[in-house]
Amino acid sequence: MITLSFLWSWTKLTGLAALALLLERALIPGFWVFALAAGITIGAWAVITAALLREWRAQAAGYHHQLTSIRRDRS
């Protein structure tokens, strides 16, 4: 089952992508330039959505990553 935090993150991402597409359409007069900008926006949305889904599936499977700090010896 999809958790609410994942769903909320995806909803915010999708809303921002939709807003970006609306702004691109309003501000870019040429069709091909708009198509390029929209393609980049949709591509970024797809990559981030896939990363969110992968992270959610990893956490659902019990994997939790942890960042550790590496300390250098100061001699």
List the helices and strands and how they pair.
Layout lengths: L3 H24 L3 H30 L15
Your description of this structure?
The chain is mainly alpha-helical and 75 residues long. It has one domain. The chain contains two helices and no strands. The longest helix is centred in the middle third of the chain and has 30 residues, at 31-60.
List keywords for this structure.
75 residues; mainly alpha
Tally of structural domains: 1
Helical proportion? over 70%
Order of helices and strands: HH
Portion in beta strands: under 5%
| Biggest beta-sheet profile | none
Instruction: Please report the total strand number as a whole number.
Output: 0
How would the global form be characterised?
elongated
Structural class: mainly alpha
SS element count, helices:
2
Distance between the termini: 52 Å
Uncertain parts:
none
Mean pLDDT: 86
Q: What radius of gyration results from the CA coordinates? A: 19 Å
Summarize the structure.
The chain is mainly α and 75 residues long. The chain is built from two helices and no strands. The radius of gyration is 19 Å and the shape is elongated.
